[in-house]
Amino acid sequence: MAEREASGLQVLLHTLQSSCDRESVLTILRVLADLLSVGTDRRIHYLISKGGSEALLRTLVDTARTDPPDYEVLLPLFRLLAKVGLRDKTIGQKALELEALDVTLILARKSLSHSQRLLHCLWALRVFAARVTTGAMLGINGAMELLLKVIPPYTHRHSRTIRAATEVLAMLLRSKSNSRRAVNQGYVTSLLRLHQDWHSHDAAAACVPIRRGLLLCLRNVTTIRSGREAFLAAGGMELLFSHAQSHLEDSSVEPVVSAMLQILRQCCPRSALPLATASCAYAAPVPGSVTPAPPPALTDEEFEDDSDEELDKDSDPEDMKEDDDLETDVDKLTAKPGLDRPEEELLQYEAMCPELSCGFEELESQSGGDLNSGCANHQHIPAAASPKPLRVGQDQGSQERAGEDTIQASLLRMVKTAGARSRPATTLHPAGRANGLGTASPGNESPGIQAPLEEDARGLGAVSCPRLSAFLCTAARCGDTAAELEELLKSRPTHVAFHDPHLFMAKAKRTRSVVDFEMLAFPDLWGHRPPPSAQSMLERKCGIQRIKILEDIRRLIQPSDVLNKVVFSLDEPGLLQDTDSNSLRFFSKFESGNLRKAIQVRECEYDLLINADLSSSQHQQWFYFQVSGMRAATQYRFSIVNCEKPNSQFNYGMQPTLYSMKEALLGRPSWVRAGSEVCYYRNHYVRHVAGAGGARGRCYYTLTFSITFPHGEDVCYVAYHYPYTYTALMTHLDLLERSVDRRQVYFRREVLCHTLGGNPCPLVTITAMPASNSPDHLEQFRHRPYQVITARVHPGESNASWVMKGALEFLVSGAPAARLLREAFIFKIIPMLNPDGVVSGNHRCSLSGEDLNRQWLSPTAQRQPTVYHAKGLLLYLSSIGRRPVVFCDFHGHSQKKNVFLYGCSIKETLWQAACTVGTAHLSEDVSYRGLQFGTSELEEMGAMFCLGLLILEFKSTSCHHQLLARAAAVLNTEDGALDFHLQRCSTGSSTAELEDEPPCAEEVEYSVGSGADPDASFAELDRQIQACAFDADEGAQAEQEDAEWRRKGIP
């Protein structure tokens, strides 16, 4: 049947080209039109595959060369060509080769006084010109001059023909050679006058498509430098700025406003960042490496690509996805990668696995002391550095009974219920609650202390936030513990789980950095307690992004109120911030801080520039800074103008995070999502070629947001995401180690290696202690499979550390599922693979300016020690037959929502696994939808990830019946119920009926070719063609219009 259909279509097409009978040709055209008017585009593509485009073009050429041309054949032929040409990407080249391009242009010239014929010619020219090289050829043959004759000043007649002419002209001006020709002949001024005329007369918005077509012509011609110069010289910026502002709220002219904004943004003079150099403001001498030279000043060629080459582009080169960590070349992956070092070198990692040889003689006495002290060499904090004793004493039996009480219907619900139950207090996981960490006395939690703290708020004047901030600077430099802080801690205890300010200060003294830090950040010292509930995604008012862009453009057009006052700069150490002025005060020289420069634009508006990664001139995305000197009930706008990512979740409801010192002293020490009018868009600052992947003309992006601070004269901190510093990690590990019950939990902390900056990279081992030192128990202990978890190889992905924090606390807790995990596995955990980058406030790189996640193939101990030794540990485990069941590296993503998994490549997930894992085994927990992840949710995810490892083990074919029996006993449930819970955990909630997150309510197109939606253009032209084909009265109406046109002498 398919062969008969194919042969029938081929017969029709052959007859169409060879027949000299007019009626036969018209019949075939009607048949083809009927065939293509119903169904889907598959019919059209099938026709194209059988040579339909060539057949129609040859028929056009043959028919046009008759004298006179038969328009009864040509008009339906043009309609078919336009319909087919929209789907045939090579129609322009085919028309050029078959001489149909010249023929159509000649017919258009002859039809200037016949609007109906001209309209059909223009439809064909539009699809031919979709290919830039074909459009350039049309420009050489005088097509632009012809089209400008067709586009008159405002008139209410021939609107369809005029609209088609503007659209064809816009297509032609996508060619750079055509744009230069238009500039040289003064068409920019003519197009501006035409736009102004149509804009001023079209009060009813009846001619929006024509006005938009004229703007698209201007947009395309201003992609070249000479076009922008001509546009600026003709006053185009002021004209379109005025028009856009006056119609910003008018939805009826939305396509026009959108095109105006694209032109205005495109014509803003491009400039370099207001920085001395694009390189990092700090120097990081790395042994054995050459310090990179600062990039040279930007050249004229880097501001734009004005080459003569004509390119057919379907998308913006900057519109790329951030899948940097997903390997797309499967050939780079090998099933069993070879060793990158001598095999005998792996023996050094034997010392990191003492659990495989430890005898546990202490178990004989059951003395209750440090049962694994013989296997671990913990580094305890000196007593002098921790004057305030930690409260770790509680009856262990009561802990176990409390843990048993939490057994609920399913494993996942147990984890989530535990997290939710702890949020109003101190967000402690079971281990923290059982050991009393973070509580000064029983019942002294935030609800109980809130009222007296608020009553004491009037006493905050005696403890000035700016003065306390100044003390933190002094304390960081001299290392003294001030009595003022000691008194403050006694009067206002922090009540933060697994945090101790004294211990933090002691750890901070040991943290090494190439940056000369001048203070301790108050949020890191005081601690963070999650808010009682998660915050919803920010609902953004539609149009706010356009308002912000127009405000930026107003600086250029109306600069009278622009201050451009530098109020903070790492490049100007001698710059003093005036405490008596109305300017905000900024600071960032603390651990993980990143702010390089602050410029006061207007009284309450600031441009901020963040620092590049150390030894680099790129990767600007992470920010974390202090701001003070604010006034109450005043909205401040902040614009970070040198971000690099092409898009961000800030466009889809995410907000920056804010920490207020006054709020913390009032008993609310929390990082919260803050900011309104949050937008992320491309600006006019040009990136250096070296930092833009070798591409010229790429620009930075602006993150802009407005904040009304909760208090006046406060000291606040603003960050990209919830900060989690290296010192916070080391403090947490100390407290975590002290909290565990040594009789049940094997917890060992040691140093994997030292970083280039001299910081120890911690390695943590967690499993269950053997029941005794009998051979059977020790054998079971030593043969537990390994799980390896790492995090924070990219410093700017701080959410990974919060997930890791939740995983660590859950694994040492008294929860039944955690006990099962410890009994089933040995966990090797590297919580922070890039300590130096975290300390320095980098976004992606290490001290040497390298992305460590790109160094796994061939790392070296001299330049990438953490990756080198982490890989060495994995190789050692594999070499002794203890290959980890799962190796997982926690990351964050600036553009993706929720939680997702990457395998080793785009084609392989859980590669090398014995069983296949399909998408049915991975499902989304929809309870997170619509929320901005807080630290509670992130920690909860860490616990749930660990639980997922247990579920994966239960579902594996190698799972022992003993483990299932133990699971049933520990979870206090029957085997059948356990199976039901596990099935429920693995299948999750059904999401088939739920739509994904809604798209951004307003997205500004950045590229020249993205202003017109191709699908929308196809549909609209199809509609016009269909209406024309079935309008019985159109021929008479067209002849009437043509007669009137000729009577008025319009050529």
UniProtKB/TrEMBL annotation:
Keywords tagged on the record: Carboxypeptidase, Hydrolase, Metal-binding, Metalloprotease, Protease, Zinc
Its EC number(s): 3.4.17.24
Region feature (Disordered): 286-340, 420-451, 1032-1051
Cofactor(s) listed: Zn(2+)
Peptidase M14 domain ranges (all copies): 722-1015
InterPro entries: ARM-like, ARM-type_fold, Cytosolic_carboxypeptidase, Pepdidase_M14_N, Peptidase_M14
Any GO molecular function: metallocarboxypeptidase activity
Compositional bias (Acidic residues): 299-328, 1032-1042
Ranges of biased composition (kind: Basic and acidic residues): 329-340
Record field: catalytic activity: C-terminal L-alpha-aminoacyl-L-glutamyl-L-glutamyl-[tubulin] + H2O = C-terminal L-alpha-aminoacyl-L-glutamyl-[tubulin] + L-glutamate; (L-glutamyl)(n+1)-gamma-L-glutamyl-L-glutamyl-[protein] + H2O = (L-glutamyl)(n)-gamma-L-glutamyl-L-glutamyl-[protein] + L-glutamate
Recorded superkingdom: Eukaryota
Active site (UniProt): E993
Location in or out of the cell: Cytoplasm, Cytosol
A GO biological process held by the record: proteolysis
Any one GO cellular component localisation term in the record: cytosol
The keyword Nucleus is assigned to this record: no
Family: Belongs to the peptidase M14 family.
Protein name, UniProt field: tubulin-glutamate carboxypeptidase
